Amino acid sequence: MSELVPLLAFADFFPRGILPYLVGGLLVGLGAATIYLSTGIIAGASTFLESTLSYVSDVPRFNRFKYVQSRGWRLVFTAGIVSGAAVYVLVSGEGVWTTDVQWWRLLFGGFLVGVGTRLGKGCTSGHGVCGVGSLSNTSFVNVATFLAVAIGTAQLVQALGVSP
Q1: For FRET with 136, which of 18, 95, 97, 163 sits at 20 to 30 Å CA-CA?
Q2: Exposure class string for 37-47: b at 16+ Cβ within 10 A, else e
Q3: How far apart are CA 45 and CA 130, in angstroms?
């Protein structure tokens, strides 16, 4: 019976079974590879957001030639991220709000993610999917840092007894 304990503990990582995560990961990887192979641009969400800001901002950082030149399809990509979540809500029948965390904590957490994205020169999708996939040393260091901070934060929050 003790041989089953590690398998049951491992099952906690995949509460809905392995298939949805496997299919999702394959689709993300396929999309990132398609964008990179067809354009030479890494498909990080923060870069895509910056390029869409060129529509409404005169800040030179957002109006670099490569952003302005490719912002049309980048806008479609960014809209696809949002609409993909909307389609999931419609198909699954789950509500839009799927967390018990208060809105102000989500807002503050989003702000911290934005600051971390700027400090880390990219987001988890850019470094974690594309950077690690292209064997970038910088991305390996950033992903290790993302994971260490996330694990440390989760442990601290649990130790302090903070609940949603």
Answers
A1: 18
A2: eeeebbbbbbb
A3: 11
Residue 111 corresponds to which tokens in the numbers above? 């702000």
Which residue shows structure tokens 């993909």? Answer: 84
Question: Which among 20, 5, 38, 156 has a CA at the least distance from the CA of 92?
Answer: 20
Nearest to 23, CA basis, from 88, 69, 68, 89: 88
pLDDT-based confidence at residue 1 (cuts at 50, 70, 90):
very low
Give residue-wise pLDDT tens across range 92-138. Answer: 877 777 678 888 988 998 888 888 887 878 887 788 888 888 888 98
- Please give the angle made by the CA atoms of 82, 157 and 105, to the nearest 5 degrees: 40
Q: What are phi and psi of 11, to 5 degrees?
A: -65, -25
- Phi, psi torsion values for 134, nearest 5 degrees: -100, 15
Structure tokens at 14: 């995949």
pTM over 0.70: no
* Angle, vertex CA 73, rays to CA 67 and CA 75, nearest 5: 75
CB atoms near residue 50 (< 10 Å): 20
